Amino acid sequence: MSTVRLTTAQAIIRYIAAQFIEIDDVRQRVCGGGFGIFGHGNVTCLGEALYDHKESLPLYRGQNEQSMGFAAAAYSKYHLRQRFMFCTASAGPGTANLYTSAALAHANRLPMLLLCGDAFLTRLPDPVLQQLEHFGNPALGVNDGFKAVSRYWDRITHPAQIIQSLPAAFATMLDPADCGPAFLGLPQDVQGWAYDYPVEFFEERTHRIRRVQADENEIADAASLLKSAERPIIIAGGGVQYSRAVSELTEFAETHNIPVVETIAGRANFINDHDLNIGPLGVTGSNSANAIAEKADVILSVGSRLQDFTTGSWTAFAQDAKLISLNAARHDAGKHLSLPVVGDAKLGLTAMSDAIGGYSAPQNWVALAQKERAGWDDYVKRNVNPKNGPNSYAQAIGVVNALCDKRDRVVAAAGGLPAEVTANWRTLDIGTVDVEFGFSCMGYEIAGGWGARIAQSENEPDSDTIVFAGDGSYLLMNSDVYSSVLTGKKMILLVLDNGGFAVINKLQNNTGNESFNNLIADCPTVPEPFAVDFEAHAKSMGALAETVASPAELAEAFKRAKAADKTSVIVMKVDAFEGWTTEGHTWWEVGTPEVSQHQKIRDAHAEVEAERVRQRKGV
Fold first, then answer.
1. 284, 309 contact by CB (below 8 A)
2. Residue 191's closest CA among 85, 119, 95?
3. CA geometry: angle at 533 spanning 527 and 534, to 5°?
4. Of 90, 145, 220, 450, which one has the greatest count of Cβ atoms within 10 A?
5. Rounded mean pLDDT of 227-236?
6. For residue 344, is pLDDT > 70?
7. Strand, helix or coil at 446?
8. Are the beta carbons of 281 and 261 closer than 8 angstroms?
9. What average pLDDT does this structure show over 62-86?
């Protein structure tokens, strides 16, 4: 067997560059490149290896490791988990900064490769700069914390180990059931150690995403239950898109005349005006979807992990409703006493459709669902109307929705905007909405927009990435405005300023509490509140920027941003108390004080507890 002598770092990068995938008959690298900030834990060895592959694996210089991870997650989401980016960080705080973004990728089942520096394996120079010492366990360090937020974790202690570890990491990241971040801890000395690797280890390989056919008995059981349904619905989750099963879902729904509701991750499985699209489901959903969900007798969930915002903390459905869950992951398929169908959504829907034959949902049930949807459409139309009260998130969403192109990609994350986008955005084309609510991570918006734009520019350079961010998220993580300008990856960023963390203030008030420490004006440690000049700040990072006073001015500014060739930031103040979407919410379980000296809090606690009777008891 012929060999080639390489350092561990050189071998890792050479292997990554040799991995390909076919997407729509186009062969391309599985790894689109990486995001990196160099330090003493990765610059000398891994940096040297990356330099020699800077054409095949472009390295984007990040400004913050956490935002690098967010950008990598958004890149993977755009590519429907078929491609990913790596992130490299130095030992110590650089790596620790990636923890939150790894958790986001883990919660959202997204592939991401983390190549992180570690302390010296020999321990001869210990303790080194930025090393955490554990007196009773010298092997324990920052990198061990990533075991909780990785699907695959390894610390490379010998150069030969990557011959097993790298294929295992790739297999995990490309597996529909186990997909998530893969973490490799790279001690500084081991990165530079050399080994005689088999040449065939670096031969180009074309990967394929595994499609697992569900067990025929599970299909038969699900079909039997579906054929008995008088009021069926389909919950369309993010897994529908990851399986590239949108057309199969559409055909299934149309053939069997079954209403479809969408999860947050499943937004943009259906275009807005499809006759069977009854709207988004759950806490941030629609009156229409929630109304039929609570009446449904059989619920087919496809590609959803059924988190609490989808299920209304498991109050969105009738106690006696029967659940079928088609999911590639066994863990997700069996939740809450579901009848599990473990397998690929595309294959599973086709097999299930064949099994139920000529079954069609009763027309009066479908008519009821469509009537509910028409009512919701009327509400959204009023809600986004620029003349409907003071400036609001919904109005801004409506303005952009009316002016954007159908293939423009919308990005939003934690705070009030995910709920407002989910409820009010009218989908123009399949797979164009990225609302990060799996880990509900503030700061994802701008970084995720940058990562999404990198991916979008590979396939759809003439479309735009549109980011909705509140002032709180902007202040938390804004440096990728500079990244987007620096790399020529244009975004359109709307900063909607409501003076603080207004949606949490709303939750605070709705549970009987007084406004406290959420809005800047209500912070007792702030002697004199003042407004941030977001326009000037964005301009200082090289972006085009302007401040508008109304939705009408926003519309004109958005047109200018569409015509521009670089990142544009549009700032508009919105009201912190009025203009919220008040319809479409299911119950959501939050912890409230059982004992309080404040009557409003005791009353709110009683209201929360009164709703608990509707909560399904399945686990």
1. yes
2. 119
3. 125
4. 450
5. 98
6. yes
7. helix
8. yes
9. 97
Burial of 457 (0-12, 13-18, 19+ CB in 10 A): middle
pLDDT at 617: 77
Instruction: Say yes or no: 295 and 162 in one domain.
Output: no
| Mean pLDDT value of segment 142-167 | 98
Strand partners, 136: none
Q: 52 and 183, same structural domain?
A: yes
Whether residue 583 is contained in a domain is answered as: no
The DSSP code for 128 is P
User: Distance (Å, rounded) from C-alpha 221 to C-alpha 223?
Assistant: 5
CB 408 within 8 A of CB 465: yes
Domain end position, chosen among 207, 228, 263? 207
**Which of 110, 58, 114 has its CA nearest to residue 448?**
110
Q: Are residues 522 and 558 in the same domain?
A: yes
How many percent of the chain have pLDDT more than 70? Answer: 100
Q: Say which amino acid occupies 347.
A: L
Cβ pair 370, 426 in contact under 8 A: no
- Same domain, residue pair 285 and 195: no
**CA-wise closest residue to 87 among 108, 117, 109, 107:** 117
In degrees and rounded to multiples of 5, residue 601 shows phi and psi of: -70, -40
Average pLDDT of the residues in 470-499? 97
pLDDT of residue 167: 98
For residues 127 and 134, the answer to whether their CB atoms sit within 8 Å is: no
Tokens of 304: 């959803």
Predicted confidence (pLDDT) per residue in 86-133, tens digit: 999 999 999 999 999 999 999 999 999 999 999 999 999 999 998 899
User: What residue type is assigned to position 66 of the chain?
Assistant: Q
Residue 127: cis peptide before it, omega within 30 degrees of 0: yes
Domain limit, last residue, from 207, 240, 269:
207
Q: Which pLDDT belongs to residue 618?
A: 65
What are the Cα distances from residue 383, in Å, to 49, 75, 112, 134, 432? Answer: 54, 32, 38, 56, 22
Does residue 566 share a domain with residue 598?
no
DSSP 289-318: HHHHHTT-SEEEEES----HHHHTTTTSS-
401: CB partners within 8 A, 6+ apart? 384, 424, 425, 426, 428
Judgement on whether residues 124 and 177 belong to the same structural domain of the protein: yes
DSSP percent split of the chain into helix, strand, coil, nearest 5: 40, 20, 40
**CA 92, CA 84: separation in Å to the nearest integer?**
24
Q: Is residue 579 part of a domain?
A: no
Number of domains forming the structure of the chain: 4
DSSP-derived secondary structure letter, 127: S
Q: Are 39 and 117 in contact (CB under 8 A)?
A: yes
pLDDT at 345: 98
Is residue 7 domain-resident?
Answer: yes
User: How many angstroms separate the CA atoms of 407 and 385, rounded?
Assistant: 23
The two three-digit tokens of residue 385, written as one number: 């109307």
Q: What is the mean pLDDT of residues 367-373?
A: 98
Domain extent at residue 273? 216-376
Residue 232 Cα distances to 217, 345, 598, angstroms: 21, 18, 44
Interval 378-426: pLDDT, tens: 999 999 999 989 999 999 999 999 999 999 999 999 889 999 999 999 9
Q: The domain spanning residue 492 has which CATH number? A: 3.40.50.970
Statement to judge: residues 410 and 512 lie in one domain: yes
Tell me: do 188 and 227 sit in the same domain.
Answer: no
Q: What is the DSSP string of 233-282?
A: EEEE-HHHHHTT-HHHHHHHHHHHT--EEE-STTTTSS-TT-TTEEEE-S
Count helices and strands in the chain by DSSP H and E runs: 24, 23
- With a cut of 80, say whether residue 282 has pLDDT above it: yes
